[in-house]
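Record 1 of the preview.
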Amino acid sequence: MRYRKPLLPIAYIIRDMAIGCKGANDFPKGVIYLDLLRSSSTGLYIDGEWQQGDKSLEVYNKYSGHLIRAVAQATPENVDSAVEAATRAFRNPLPAHRRATILRRTADLVRDHEEVFARTIAQEGGKPYKDALAEVRRAIETIQLSSEEAKRIHGETVPLDAAPGSENRMGLFLRVPKGVIAAIAPFNFPINLVVHKVGPAIAAGCPVVLKPATTTPLTSILLAEVLEEAGLPPGYFNLIIGPGGAIGDYLVQHHGIKMVTFTGSPPVGEHIRSIAGLKEVVLELGNNSGNIVHSDADYKTAAKLLAAKAYGSAGQFCISVQRIYVHRPILEAFSQTFLEESAKLKVGDPLDPSTDVGPLITEGEAKRVKDWVDEAVSQGATLLAGGNREGSVIMPTALTNVTQDMKVVAQEIFGPVASLIAYDDFDEALELINHGTYGLQAGVFTNDIGRAWKAAKTIEAGGVIINDTSSYRVDLMPYGGTRRSGIGREGPRFAVEEMTEIRMIVFNL
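->
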């Protein structure tokens, strides 16, 4: 594994093969583990200082099950300290050019150590290394985009003389930062979804208190080190780690928080909204992504793309392909190509650069996915491929003869499972894809411009992707859903808008 120039405060220590494991005999032969974090980086970063905690939280390799590192677990008192530090920082605003420069430096430092970030994600998140590396590179772009947005925040003049009696008045509005942001991030993109919250917040001039997922906090610790190295002043970024039911709820309800941005499940999002009070809340809550393949499309290309996005990252991302509606005349040919492409995917250790599908985040989640598949089969679904579980690994699974009310179709499975469903008429497909309560993104494969436009206007989702899968996303686009898929939009430009508010100014001349 190669490194670019070393980030001096970080010590890279190649561990003995028994250290950090449940037992020396348990350690997979031929594998070395790296301690990627400086010894002082505890996981509790407040007001520019790493702090110790009374309790610790253990982080495990999601494939081998071996302990990677224990980190400090925050208390409510730590949350108070973090919010107070962020509030003090907010009272000493950074000018736009400094915010932009710090974010540019942060992007450069992440790029210098992209392998370190990717290897950390592969270990703590179970994401295949090549997907983890792609995520890190997307995160670099997200930070760069945030840097650019720091210099684009502006207001407008308002023609007050358009109102009778206001002929001698001049009006304008500014966009000003809302205040301290509570950012609660998920496990499945432990760097890119974090910087989709942290980057725009810093760009907007809003200090952040970040609570990452307890299963994947190490990547956020690396980010804290990089932000400090990039020159971000104390208090602008604070890191707390702890369970959502205790630390997360306390953070959301804290009177010093002005906005909450959360990515996760709909039940948790609804809970956050119910306890947040009058704070601004932005929620990105998932999907059961539907995709249509019509007979006028290139079904072989569609099958290849859909197989990759149904099973990549073990299906653990909000816009992962789940429902595939196929025009009946091409169903058999499409299914054959889809299964052939699926069979080419390599399942195994995320640290192996050739692995396509790794484990789920916990064995409990793998058991749940297996239960949903078994239930669907018991209700009449046909298993075309996969369906078996080995520990926390679910083999790429394809189903057909499913119904709209089965869990594997109606709910977000968040695992490597796709259902192939026949339809006879394009209008029927549009109706099927709108069935249910989610509306994040959908994919439509057709070479007919009329059908494409009809789909774009009919599908109830935050994004409709023509001739690509529901999984397409670039980090500058507005990203978010309707219905149970969320409230608000991400993407640096749009997140900055969410994190700033209008201040109207009137001059009586």
